[in-house]
Amino acid sequence: VLIEVGESIDTITKPIQYAATAALGLGSASAIAAVQFEDNFANVKKTVDGTPEQLEDIRQKIIQMSTTGVNGHSAIPQTTAELNELAAAGGQLGITTDNIVDFTEVMAQMGSATNLVGEEGAATLARFQNVMGVGQNEIRNIGSAIVDLGNHSATTESEIASMALRMGKYGSSVRMSAADVLGYSAALSSLGIEAQMGGSAIGRTWLSIEKAVANGGEGLKVFAKYSGKSAKEFKEQWNTDSSGAFNGLLKGLQSAENLTVALDDLGINNTQDIQAMMALVNGYDLVTASVERSNTAYQENTALQEEFDAKAETTASKLSVAKNNVVEIARSFGDLMLPTIVDVSNGVSQY
User: What is the pLDDT of residue 333?
Assistant: First the structure.
């Protein structure tokens, strides 16, 4: 009889025990998820100078990015920890509070759809924006141009961005647009020139032209001669359309009897500068097509979203987003427990 009573009690209590164990496990997992998110978001608070209301909006948008998506876009298959890192990096790099969410989403999409990833990728694009002097609201335009160029060039997105960062500080000085610089960067990288050398080499050439135009005289006449223009025509075009003037110079140099001699006439005699210019002259059609493509993609501003949307349809991305949603359910439950955890922690610390 006692055995039968014991079995009856087990039948009743076992499900309760299992449920209690499961609840305890869920509670523990939820608490951990909530604490981890709070800890990660603390880094965003350190670098983003916003009001409590602005920070809460950023916090909610980061959660939405990883679960349901923001701005009508698909959810991003990255964890909130990874998104918080990007947001914190943006704040540290000078991205304003109003632009942090867009910057984070663009960099997360780039990281999902290209090889331009993480804090390093964020730093490269943020610094490129700074040296080019473009508005922070144009980060998606930059991303779209890079993605489109990467899809149609013999190079990668990270190589284009790296080249552009080095070239950008010179390009902005001679009125090149961000799209122009990205186009030249993609072409130069596709032609086998490394970013560390190529960006600075072409930049120095642009500054030489700028100096010749400003000073006039024989220096200007030589650049004009190889461009097939008068000194006045070349000066006017350089001051109003430096990219067009530079492309005209490249085309004119194609007809030079001896390219090395012609470059020397222009004062281009540094070995690295000669290599970079020879690559652009010999790849003139690629250069002009790349610059045109970059400007079109920059203006249309759709390539990044299209690339990301295609990536978001993969099974791996969908599984990552599904996992993010499960974690978010746990985190939401854990948020309710945080005050109790803090109270208990404070109580223990008193002993």
Answer: 63
What pLDDT is attached to residue 317?
86
Per the structure block, which two tokens stand in for 91? Answer: 């704040």
Phi first, then psi: what are they for 38, rounded to 5°? -60, -40
Task: Please give the structure tokens belonging to residue 328.
Answer: 């978010």
Residue 50 tokens, joined: 């916003």
d(CA 295, CA 19): 60
Tokens of 179: 């799209």
d(CA 236, CA 232) in angstroms, rounded, equals 6
| Low-confidence winner among 64-73, 176-185, 212-221, 312-321 (lowest mean pLDDT) | 312-321
* CA geometry: angle 111, 116, 118, nearest 5 deg: 60
Burial 165-180 (b: 16+ CB within 10 A, else e): bbbbbbbbebebbbbb
Q: What angle do CA 53, 129, 89 make, to 5 degrees?
A: 45
Task: Say which amino acid occupies 324.
Answer: N
Q: Copy the structure tokens of residue 96.
A: 């304003």
Cβ burial of 285 (10 Å; 0-12, 13-18, 19+) is exposed
pTM, rounded to two decimals: 0.84
Token duo for residue 274? 């000669």
Q: Looking at residues 319-338, what average pLDDT do you find?
A: 72
